[in-house]
Structure prediction request, 468 residues.
Amino acid sequence: MAAAIIAIKNQREKKNRAAVSSETSEEEDAMDGAPAMAAPSPRAGAGARAPAAGSSSQSSAPQESPNAAMACCRNTADVLPFQKVVREVYHSNNVQIFVAVLITTNFLCTIAEKEIDPFPDDIKQFATVWFIIDQVFTWCFVVELIANMYGAAFSCNFWNSGWNLFDFVIVLISVLSSTGALQGPLSMLKILRAFRVFRLFKRVPALNKIITSLFRAIPGVMNAFIIMVIIMSIYAIIGVEVFRDFGEGGTFTSIQQLGVEPYASYPNTTVSSVTMRGFYYGEEYFGTFMRALFTLFQVLTGESWAEMVARPLLFGYPSDSSWFFSAFYFSSYIVVMQIVLVNVVVAVLLDKFVEEPPKDEAGEASEEDEAAGAARAADKAAAHEAVAAAAADKAASAAAVAARSSSSSEVTRLEYEALRKELGAMHEKLTGVSEMRTQLDVLSASIEKLAQASSMPAAALPSSGLNA
Prediction:
């Protein structure tokens, strides 16, 4: 009986699973066919999602992202005549190579001018030649700058780039200098024309990587520089305290020892301590904090520090232990500053050089790349929106199927509980029948014994009927 009940339950579960799987396949087929049917008329899906989109836009309008204005600026459409053509031509490889050659030629001409004719304008030998060359390069750079600005519609697509700002400042100063607008103190701005060659770094990727790495390394390098300045200041304070009075009076004695005691001789020599600037040695090199700081900077560069700075202090002190302090002072300074901290600065620079630039810096390559990237981003956004809509519809259908499957599972569970209760009741009935049969057997045995005792024939007794 139990086996029959279990078989009935399994058969019902199989039927329920078959019904659920058929409904799921029908829903998936309908979903797969929906995009093709909806493709000719996308307004229906857009209209169905319009309220949610509208409510989302209304709720998020007061909380606009800080980068929204920047994204809108980068995605500015072409608003000027032939703007796209000008931008594509300007950012083409041939034009960029030509501009790079122009910048390099201008730099070489400036070098030639300062070598051949490095005199004021009124006494230059080839003043007219240099003036014409400067005018030609200046106005070529003006045309190049205007083309760059026109391709960006004179908008923030141009002004957001640091290299474009640098180009604008240099070209503006060159134009003002060529027109004679820079007079008096402003004429010193003419020297900025020498920085035209820096515009080459924008167009050569290898040079651009070096410059951007240097700028990104500034925070880490500044920390190392602060430590170096603190250590130099400590050594400068000690130098002022100890060496300031060295050579006072105009001479110092060079202490020497030849041989060992008791046969040692001391051919000491009196040496002038007056420097070429008329100061005493200690007064010039360690007279004040700033003088001592500059002396230590000279030691750090390695420029004749041992001969001019350290050796007079090693051999000129009268005490036997002073030479040890002088040697330790300069040796420890070289180890800490030149061997340790300078290498720390180099390590920071190398780390930034091999590090990948941030996406924000990498994204400033050119306005053409930005426009193409914006178009690709718009296409991807539209594709993602369509995929998201299809996924939402599919998720809704799957949720409906799951709900029906859940309800079917609930019905199956209730039927199982009912069958289990029915099986229990039947089991109780069978148990009662078994007990009744046992009691009847006992009663039959008692009747047989009673018949034997009263000599009654056993066939006359109804025992067989009871057993049946």
